[in-house]
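Q: For a teaching session next week I want to show students how multiple molecules come together into a single three-dimensional assembly. I've collected the sequence lines for a complex. Could you give me the predicted structure tokens for the whole thing so I can convert them for display?
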Amino acid sequence: MGLLSDPNRRRALIGLLTRLNAPIWGMPVDWLVKTMQSRGLEVFTQRFSRRLPFPDEDKERYMVKGTNVYGILRAPRAPRTEALVLSAPCTAGDHNNQAVGLLLGLAQYFRNQVYWAKDIIFLVNEHDLIGMQAWLEGYHHTNTTGMDWSPLQGRGGSIQAALSLELSSDVVTSLDLVLEGLNGQLPNLDLANLFYAFCQKIGVLCTTQGKLQRNDWDSVSGYSHAVQTMMLMAMKQASGRPWGDHGLFLRYHIEAATIKGINSFRQYKTDATTVGRLLEGMYRKLNNLLERLHQSYFFYLMSSLSHFVSIGYYMPAFGLLGVILLLRALDLWVQLASPPPRTEDGVVDADPGVLSVLTPLVISHLTGAALYTLPIHFQEMAVEHFPVSETEAVVLTAIAVYTAGLALPHNTNRLLTGQGTEQGWKVLKLVAVLYLAVLLGCTALINFSLGFILALTLVPVAAFVTPNVPKVLSAFVLVVLSPACTLLFSVFFFQELQEMPVSFLDGWMLYLSVISQGILDHALYGSLVYPLVALLVYPCWLLFWNILFWK
Amino acid sequence: MKILGLLSLLATHLSANSVNIEENAGQFFSSGHTNNWAVLVCTSRFWFNYRHVANTLSVYRSVKRLGIPDSHIVLMLADDMACNHRNPKPATVFSHKNMELNVYGDDVEVDYRGYEVTVENFLRVLTGRLPPSTPRSKRLLSDDRSNILIYLTGHGGNGFLKFQDSEEISNVELADAFQQMWQKRRYNELLFIIDTCQGASMYERFYSPNLMALASSQVGEDSLSHQPDLAIGVHLMDRYTFYLLEFLEDIHPASKSNMNDLFKVCPKSQCVSTPGHRTDLFLRDPGSALITDFFGSVRKVEITMETVNLTDPIEQVEQNFVNEDLQKESYSYVDQLPVSEIIHQTLAGEDAPGSIVAVGGNGLVMPPVFHFYFTVTRHDVATRQEEPD
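A: Of course. Below is the structure for the complete assembly, covering every listed component.
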């Protein structure tokens, strides 16, 4: 019992996969429609088009057009109230050429079974995430990102769970599970546990973050391996981008994960039939579910597929960092409440009041707004004047605005009243510290890794910066720990963790592409990392920069 | 010549059998019941509770096989497993893996189905307080000569049984329902079997006479399921009912196994939990109560292979059948509901045989704490001669 115990079906599947081994030029929409219909599914297509804010390296043009093809397998006896999704992104080239074949083979097998209680939707989306976003928006009748798509002709009920496949070769040595989604959202841990349990049952090697499971948890190397895996997951989560097509489902409260097939140099290889059996088992399990997966954790960090750290354990670590800020705020409040010391000539310093604090705040936020809007708006002007492509123009404008903000304190100090007072900077610091505490707290709730990484770098400087510390050294430290440099170091560290260290120049190019990707993600899918950093974290950091250069 | 020889052989055989027949006659009236009813309830719904439906259907199957007709069985199933969308073998419910035994079959008659299985309906069935429009198949039309088998299965806890994932019946409610049944003379003897977690807690509070109870696990223990079927994907049966079914497959309508054999079903080595039983409220010795007293509907029919001469020998036999002390009396109907007599009768000084014991002997012996049960005097039992059906 099970997929492809029939040798004829096995041969048919392998034939299908070999046929698809050649690179696909664009997406063969008509062929897909015909094939899915011949397998007994109800097939529909959706056209979408999207104007990019700036052309990225892959597309090299402003307009992205595509077609999604999906076939619905109706449950033979059940009412059409619930659905499951199996998707395979279809891109030109070798990247994911086997997944569609496996999907079609599974569709044929599933069609012959009577035990489906939910509709199964087999989705082949074009242009990866853009196509997936168009399909999801069409399915749920929302339009959050301003994309242009044709409405869906066929629907299947509310989606309970989804799996996305990425297979580049017809034999795999291991399967990698990708969980991180948009804005650091994760699917329910039960989905990961389900996958791992099935892998063990069938005997397929499975990994998370591309790292193998180890058994020696007590030894130092085993522990460091686990820490590395967890840090990889934290960095992926902090980036806020969906690391697989599944990442966009999570926003609609649909538990989803991506399964990637990895073909590395290993003796024991698993063929597509076994992967198909694994997927069949997972779909039968999801079919038996009576409600959405909600029993296990939604907030966790996995150090391996069998060990994880839940929110109850990692939040106190963040809480302790936040307490530093609150204590500093308390200290400042007490200092401000006590009467000011009289100066020698008996002149009492004028109470600066709240208004003087307002000026640096407004100016910092205006700078942040500039960082958010200017790069995209002035890309044509930049391209005219400098010999760079649009993507580079956007990124370099962003860096330029960021660096220009560093020059602010010297200019804005002239506008401030109450300058030169002890009270002035203390009030500003009090406001800044509380602002940072609230900001980091809210960020950590939504995307813990992002909040934690920002807290690690910003809290120490926020606590200790005053106008009285040595200027050059603390200026250097402040710049090094600013969000931009944190990102730069994270890029190098990320590559290091993945055991693919890069040279400085490559790392710099990677850094630029990360910034451009962040801006693009925000425009396309609503990722919150770029606006958060530009509009809130950067102004907050500028306030501390102001305090450092207070006169 | 041959006929004479045969007749003499017959006569000697009959006289030899007459002692045997008297014993049989004695046995016929030992239980005091004339009809059998069964109330079989499965209280849980959802696909993963497949095993509870399979439990109930296998007891239903045994009970039907041993003679109780559908009109005397009230079958309550809270969910429909055979036609569930997830059933890879539609219209079947299996109790053994590899699909050996389909307990759903062709002639299952479910009386209460789906959302009709509620605590209220269950209690109304037991006490008989149903609206006049209720069809006969949904009623428990028992009288005071009925032996009733009540089988409950589902998810339970300490003192309660869960119905349909939304409500519960407590052991106090159940005990009170049985007391109502006793006061309304709705049963002669009642066998209560429950297969849930902590099932022994459900019979702790019984206080009406002529009740015998069996449970699959003690308080604090879980009743476990038996085996999953990999093709269907769920567990098919609970352990206790699985071994109960195996035990019952050996019982045929003429078998003489008694309740003591039933208590030995599924010891701890097989069941993992410790089954328990309770016999202190039962007025007869459990060893004298046959399995078929409750599980089967045994007619008072003696099948003989000899030809019987319908003259003198018959009268002889007839004389032996009837109890001696009642021959001369004229018969009269017993007062239908002598409630006042029953309520105000006090303890007659008889000690109930047996106590609550646990098979497996883990030291759990509860002292009988019930002082307030009724005894039924002998003349009430033996006056009725008809067999209402």
